[in-house]
Amino acid sequence: MKTALITGATSGIGRATARLLAKNHYRLIICGRREDRLAELQDEFSHLTKVHTLNFDVRHKKEVAQSLKSLPKEFANIDVLINNAGNAHGLDPIENGDVHDWDAMIDINVKGLLYVSKEVIPGMVERRSGHIINIGSIAGKETYTNGNVYCATKHAVDAINQGMRMDLNQYGIRVGAINPGMVDTEFSEVRFKGDKQRAENVYKGFEPLKAEDIADVIHFVISRPYHVNIADLLILPTAQASATIVNKKL
Ligand code: NDP
Ligand code: 8X3
């Protein structure tokens, strides 16, 4: 039985991935800040597999380290790390950008990903085995108007993904990025700070991806034979051709 750690497992892509991996009998470590959701998911999955919850904010280096060092022995050897926790905060032109939003995105999407990886990679190196999936975005391949800092964080994830793959190659550790286009999750609600109407409008007039679509791809990637490393995937809804070209029928 493989052990998978998923950050941002309380919602969207992370939650759908946790569900699918539970059904496929991965031993799961699910992470997030919302303790109530972690408890609900643990309850939901417990008849399928072994589940451990870790409640931490990826921004807090010490919290991340303490949480990961607290893992019980049977969860300590992580085979699959899914660096998924992340969000956009705001969608403003650079001249009006809120520095708190910038801090949040850089601290969560970039530094948080690094803090978690820093705790997990040494065990993988020691065991000469492991698979890291970094959730990037089409925003890591293109920049769009008002996307400035969010796009920068996802471009950073793209670079970190490539760098990790190069550095960990000698240990036989697989590293790959999955870069979704528009997925209907809580993402836009977070971006627009709880404005549900504005969030719903993002996905109106076309069929966006569902979190489960990305979960399917993640499961496919991590279940390939060992000699296959899917290094970088871009997954779009059929109606989306680029970060800004979406065939909406409104
Ligand atoms: P959701 O908002 O639904 O989920 C985000 C997850 O990240 C939640 O589980 C949340 O958990 C966790 N998270 C956020 N901030 C923190 C933090 N400070 N510490 C720990 N966990 C945190 O969005 P998605 O599922 O859509 O997003 C998942 C990933 O996919 C992100 O990296 C996002 O950038 C990426 N992505 C999303 C796309 C989309 O269109 N939806 C497209 C391309 C990429 P909690 O609040 O409980 O801590
Ligand atoms: C999320 C997709 O297009 O809002 O990464 O940047 S997008």
TrEMBL record:
UniProt protein name: SDR family NAD(P)-dependent oxidoreductase
SUPFAM superfamilies: NAD(P)-binding Rossmann-fold domains
Keyword Oxidoreductase: yes
UniProt keyword list: Oxidoreductase
Endoplasmic reticulum among keywords: no
UniProt record similarity statement: Belongs to the short-chain dehydrogenases/reductases (SDR) family.
